[in-house]
Amino acid sequence: MKVDLLINNINVYGKISVIRELSCKKAKQFMPHLQKTRDTMNNTSLFSSLFITSILCLTGCSGTQNSGADIILTNGYVYTVDDNKSVVEGVAIKDGKIIALGSTADMLTYKGKNTIVNDLGGKMVMPGLHDMHIHALDIVKPDMCDLGSEVYSLTELVAPIKACLDHYQALKEETFLVLQWNPFEGNQPSEQLPNIRAALDAVSTDQPIILQGNDGHNGAANTAAFNSLVPAMTASTLKSVYKEYKGLVATNALGEPTGGLSEQARDLFTDNVISKKRGSNTPSKDIMPRVAKKLAKNGITSVQDPIVSNHVLNHYMWLENSGQMSFRVRTAFLADLEANLSDNETLDVDKVAQRALDEVISLRGKLIHSNYIQAVATKIFADGVMEGNPYAQPPTSPVAALIDGYRQPIFSINPETGNASIQSYVDLDSDVCKQVLKAPKAFDEAKTIATFKDDNGYYPSQCFKNYGTLNHNEGVIRSYVAKATKAGLHVHIHAVSDKAVQLTADVFEDNKETADALGLTQSIAHIQLARTEDIKRLSDLGAYVVFTYDWASPDPEYDMTVIPFVDNVKNDADLYNPEHYYYKNTYPFKTVINTGGTSVWGSDAPVGSRDPRPFESMHTALTREFGGIVLNPAERLDIHEIIASYTINSAHMMSHSDQLGSLIVGKTADLIVLDRNIVELANSAQPERIRDTVVETTIFNGHIVHQID
Fold first, then answer.
1. Which of 302, 404, 670, 686 could form a disulfide with 328 if both were Cys (CB 3.0 to 4.6 A apart)?
2. d(C-alpha 383, C-alpha 527), whole Å
3. Could you list the residue range(s) of the whole structural domain that residue 581 is in?
């Protein structure tokens, strides 16, 4: 082979890698050509790279390579995620770096007396996974009452919580916190237990009890908890003292709380409930090694934690100082923007935003030096979630802000299954509803409400159009993003609904120039529902879209809590109508890519499950199918797009793609070995087998941190 051919190859593989991929015998053949052209090559830096690398290779052949590589993987399907999606047989690792890629024969030339050689027998190797939205501390269960996301009717829910209360023997004056309640599946009422408040009262009438939903946005309280507030929360105080939380507290037709809580309303009942949930009282030594082990077991070597507070940062710092760190983390400090749910003209938005930023900056300043922790990002909630409650009387609408507002569906309950079905809709333009809107106080007495319900089949309160709400005053959000960007923070925004996505695109556009000048990435999480024009704007802005792919799995029971509030669903069979706004615009995985955007993966664990479930999410991204139902096949991704979103795309988002995200000579050795070839399974119409993929080996920074014997 001539030198000019060698130089052409450099354009594909890079200056240093090309000769290191050669066998020593071939390197010797190239040496005379390099020496002969030493004085004639125009690109002296290129020549130097080739010349020096050849010497290194030859030196290794001549004996100074006696220590060899630390780890060699051979006879595998090594999916590199380079620009060409190259596949090779093996990889050699030394001192935490990839030193060679290529054939098994070439890799074995790097073998020394202490080298670990693993014959993969055809198994797949790929870069370590990046999880760009995971609450890592929560993926292991703390020693607290935990319902494990199980599905219970309200009657069935009583016994496990009673057992927890007996086991933990909480003091009567303490609020008893129950984790991982499933707010969207189960919870069917009964005549004796018509709502979640009644179910929790059946557990205890004098012990304040708070359920925390497994979605991180919903909760529930019993009467003792409502009465523990000063003043107690009632229909009357919800109109006065707690009026800012209207819409975040579920009520019956009379306005009395029925137990359900959303967003900031949960924090009224506990002191910093998120911190309590995230193991603030658990010593680092009892939680962090378990976190590291579980991430490694799932093949996850880089994460972004989107809710980091002081104690969470302390946990990460402890893990690194202990020498047990087996993943890299970007900490997105949660901005405390206070409630600020209303458009209050007297609110000093800049003051609120600056106060939140000062707290974040102080946390960032705690981390003076770290090899594995990037304390460089901040997180805000633009909105909440889109699930309503069809079992409530009247049905509770979703809280996330929707541009066109929510419909008012009328549900029926199947007496045999207890499940909700769509029956019809309230005509908000009817003469009856116009009467309610004209004189609402005439319809707020129990007798009047009952008569109205008997005559019309729905409640007077259902005559009001509900648009949901942003999680904070819009001015506060805009001010904080501008200040945080100028302060050099990567901004990460939770946005589920179309209104929140629209606002996120606005604020990213407003601060794009500053972000680019400072080398910052802007990212948005979830996007359950969005208009295509806003997706296109996000793509044009270069924003990273973090999807929890598994959420696009169709589930009629769950979807009944969302879709009928958005679209006019004729009946249960019409739930997945391809013409519906929701169907066409939900979880737009492919639209992001088609408009030039960048999709990345984030599990959002423990939402739904404490397990990150990376390969279940891959399966859903490929199929968007469950139980024979497909949720908009046009938004499916192919396997190469999916793998990129777990690896190189996320590495770009974390600003370390020069070292991670693909398997290229010179990059850091974060990689995993799988028990099956997910590329071949996807391409041979066997995507269901991807769900059960097992990570057999995880290598972090060149060291084996997980291995199945």
1. 302
2. 11
3. 284-383+470-693
119 and 73 share a domain? yes
pLDDT of 37 above 80:
no
Sign for the CA dihedral angle at 625, 544, 607, 324 comes to positive
Is position 614 within any domain? Answer: yes
Phi-psi map region of 336: left, alpha, beta (phi>0 left; psi -120 to 50 alpha): beta
Alpha-carbon 252 to chain mean position = 33
Residues 508 and 628 occupy one common structural domain: yes
Q: What average pLDDT does this structure show over 95-106?
A: 98
Number of Cβ within 10 Å of residue 541's Cβ equals 18
User: Between the CA atoms of 234, 236, 238 and 244, what dihedral angle is there, to the nearest 10 degrees?
Assistant: -160
- pLDDT tens sequence across 336-383: 887 655 556 678 999 999 999 999 999 999 998 999 999 999 999 999
* Side-by-side strand order, sheet with 116-119: 97-102, 90-94, 71-74, 116-119
pLDDT digits (tens, 9 = 90+) for 585-625: 999 999 999 999 999 999 999 998 999 999 999 999 999 99
Rounded to whole angstroms, the Cα distance separating 394 from 404 reads 21
The packing angle between helices 474-486 and 498-510, to 10°, is 40
Where is pLDDT greater, at 38 or 71? 71
> CATH number for the domain including 42?
2.30.40.10
Residue 675 tokens read as: 């028990």
Report the length, in residues, of the chain. 709
Residue 706: what pLDDT? 98
Residues 97 and 160 in one domain: no
Query: Does the residue 549 lie in any domain?
Result: yes
336, 309 contact by CB (below 8 A): no
Share of the chain above pLDDT 70, in %: 88
CA angle 23, 77, 687 (to 5 degrees): 165
List residues bridging with 369 in a β-sheet: none
